[in-house]
Amino acid sequence: MDHATPTDAIEFQAGPAGATLSGSLFLPDRPLGLVVFAHGSGSSRFSPRNRAVADYLNRADLATFLFDLLTAEEHEVDQYTRQFRFDIDLLSERLVGTIDWVSQYALTADLPIGLFGASTGAAAALRAAAERPESVAAVVSRGGRPDLAEERLPEVLAPTLLIVGGYDDVVIELNRLAAERMNAVNRLEIVPGATHLFEEPGTLEKVQELARDWFLEYLRR
Asked: Which segments constitute the KANL3/Tex30 alpha/beta hydrolase-like domain (predicted)?
């Protein structure tokens, strides 16, 4: 698989309040599953690291959906106030609403769903997996903050891969503790030589490989 066909930017309503969010869907010719991305604090669906991971997954015949957890107005406010980026309740609610939406959207309704969360987005992904156990088949966390979803971790049923940089000492410990609290199949992968953002040469490529293998194992079942 050499490429995935992108749809035009999609606007959709998510969550009880019906917030209008924007997303980008990339569909291989014969997708094996769909990976929904939850970006980290202060980021958006245009996150270059998430885009790189998504492109790699597309080449493995996995569809990807990258979307903004905040509305355009909220994002503008958050750039100055940081009011929303750590509101895990809000972010989780939006992600759950997005899972419900892709489960009904014609192009993705029949695909098993995985979640890829980065930083605070990983906390939202874990909470959403606990909230929608019948919908979420696998979770991958990159440099995640699972401690922000601590109370829901035992409820997560989806197999979960926790990826942390080898130099990200505090986050390594947070992920170790999270793995111990989880009842689901889980694995902690520490990428040597990587800091929190996986900016070092070769480290993001390792994340891509780990995520691909995890999703292919659990979304094809």
From this structure: 34-202
